[in-house]
Design goal:
Elements lengths: L24 H10 L4 E2 L6 H5 L12 E4 L3 H13 L4 E4 L13 E4 L6 E4 L4 E5 L4 H8 L16 H6 L7 H4 L6 E7 L5 E4 L5 H10 L5 E8 L5 E9 L4 H12 L6 E9 L14 E9 L3 H12 L6 E2 L2 E4 L16 E8 L4 H10 L9 E6 L3 H4 L19 E8 L5 H17 L5 E3 L15 H6 L4 H14 L16
Parallel strand pairs: 2-4, 3-4
Antiparallel strand pairs: 1-2, 5-6, 6-9, 7-8, 7-9, 10-12, 10-13, 10-14, 11-12, 11-16, 15-17, 15-18, 16-17
């Protein structure tokens, strides 16, 4: 890789009136000859599989897919896209797809999956296509853990660029806070290494606001000295939901930063493939991840257990490699849409209304999750103001409320309209405390919303948003990388 100083804006941007190079079969053959990885065109065997991701409700429809194998392939693909005036999208796993291409060039990074761990410096280095399960497995033999999210199949890079609210979030902060270096292909196809010393503004902008500034080909970040957790779920039935909501809010005022938790409300369908205790029931789950010992963990959760009878209680000490069992996120691709609200606070009455709106009377299934924030998420990794950390928006939020609905295959448009209506009604109940949105949890195609620009701006406070748009103007003035949550309908 050629390393170039990334401190300035684009060098020699393509003129707006430059002639287009025709996207002919000969041109596509030329791209294929330049890449180590495969190239797919519509109709090719493998095209549909390559463009598909975990989010099955929205799929890219590119004119060409570059199945890149390394950073040189990425640079070649971006150069090709610029020559042919093709907008560029990037996909690893497609979990958080929120802006699908219609034409353009899709860079698929799934083949770039290398992971290395340096136990002496407690760091991991990953290529663009690595997923969290790989990092967890590579770090575990050294008693180390990454700041991954609840689903181990999520791509490391895209999650981290959005900030990354993970299993250990209150203890160690955002995943973005612990990144040490980023390898980037810029909009003019240069390969650069970006650090806090080489370009502080771009480095900070990439972490928490980095979608649309380039293609990240590699990332180096710190690992945490965590080998075991006390964690799992407490599950309450419908009769305990109101009391459990109030108890959970009181409890979050008392717990130490070493305890990260969330609360979920789910109406399970009455399906034979589900465990009998779940079928057709409206349940409240409290998910716990505590980095202290099991005895202290049991003492801390005692007020929650005192709420009343539980459907299940599997809190236990576990190796960190089993942390994915705390949330039990689905592993199979499916269609879904969702929204979220970062909150300065919330009260039990509002949450009871959210539970009623999204419960058995809802016209669509809605999964509600309330994450307890604060701790190192608010202070930054050094325990200070967070000013030296990544550019994650709204660090002062105390809670994150997420609403997500699966979309059926029979009437996806009708399901989407119904889901958005219920989501809007639920989020309206917490409007007095709403300060913004988390970009990590904008699930679904948001650019077709009438309020697309507002959705994009809500991910950061005004000053931080202006900083991000200034970086975008400097580093991608032609909006080459336009398929991302911040695009706000600009393309």
């Amino acid at each position: 890789m050629t390393t170039i100083d990334a401190s300035g804006p684009l060098a020699a941007p393509l003129a707006p009136d430059a002639p287009d190079a025709p996207l002919t079969p000969e041109a596509l053959d030329g791209l294929a000859r330049r890449l180590h990885g495969p190239v797919f065109r519509p109709g090719d065997a493998g095209y549909d599989a390559e463009r598909s991701g975990f989010q099955a409700g929205y799929r890219h429809r590119p004119a060409v897919i570059a199945g890149v194998a390394d950073a040189d392939d990425v640079a070649a693909a971006v150069a090709f896209a610029r020559a042919h005036r093709l907008p560029v999208a990037v996909q690893v796993t497609g979990h958080g797809l929120s802006a699908a291409t219609d034409g353009g060039l899709l860079i698929s990074t799934r083949r770039m999956s290398q992971v290395t761990v340096d136990p002496a410096t407690r760091t991991a280095r990953v290529a663009a296509g690595a997923v969290w399960s790989q990092v967890i497995e590579a770090a575990a033999p050294y008693g180390l853990a990454p700041l991954n999210g609840s689903a181990p199949g999520v791509g490391v890079v895209s999650y981290t660029l959005g900030g990354g609210v993970g299993v250990l979030a209150r203890t160690y902060g955002f995943a973005a806070d612990h990144v040490r270096a980023i390898d980037l292909v810029t909009a003019d196809a240069r390969q650069v290494r970006v650090t806090a010393d080489s370009d502080p503004a771009l480095f900070r902008g990439l972490l928490g606001g980095g979608h649309g500034l380039g293609v990240v080909t590699g990332m180096e970040f710190g690992l945490m000295p965590v080998a075991r957790l006390y964690g799992g779920q407490l599950v309450f039935g419908a009769g305990q939901i109101d009391d459990a909501l109030a108890a959970y809010l009181r409890w979050t005022e008392t717990v130490p930063d070493t305890l990260t938790s969330s609360l979920a409300l789910i109406v399970y369908p009455d399906l034979p493939q589900l465990p009998a205790p779940l079928r057709g029931r409206h349940l409240l789950q409290i998910r716990i991840a505590f980095t202290g010992d099991a005895e202290e963990g049991a003492r801390l959760v005692a007020p929650l257990r005192a709420v009343g009878p539980v459907v299940s209680d599997d809190l236990r000490e576990m190796p960190y490699t089993e942390a994915h069992t705390i949330h039990r996120d689905p592993a199979d691709p499916h269609a879904y849409n969702g929204d979220n609200a970062l909150l300065s606070g919330v009260d039990a009455a509002a949450l009871r209304q959210v539970a009623a709106l999204t419960g058995p009377a809802s016209p669509v299934m809605v999964v509600v999750q309330l994450n307890h924030l604060g701790g190192a998420l608010a202070t930054g990794p050094d325990g200070g103001s967070g000013a030296g950390a990544g550019g994650v928006g709204h660090r002062d939020a105390r809670f994150l409320l997420r609403v997500l609905s699966p979309l059926g295959a029979d009437d996806p448009e009708g399901d989407l309209a119904a889901a958005r209506a219920v989501h809007a009604a639920a989020l309206a109940e917490v409007a007095p405390w709403r300060i913004g949105r988390s970009v990590n949890f904008l699930f679904g195609e948001h650019r077709d919303r009438p309020d697309a620009a507002e959705v994009a701006r809500s991910t950061h406070a005004p000053e931080a948003w202006h900083h991000h748009t200034a970086l975008k103007a400097a580093h991608d003035p032609e909006n080459v990388f336009r398929f991302h949550p911040y695009d706000g309908g600009r393309s």
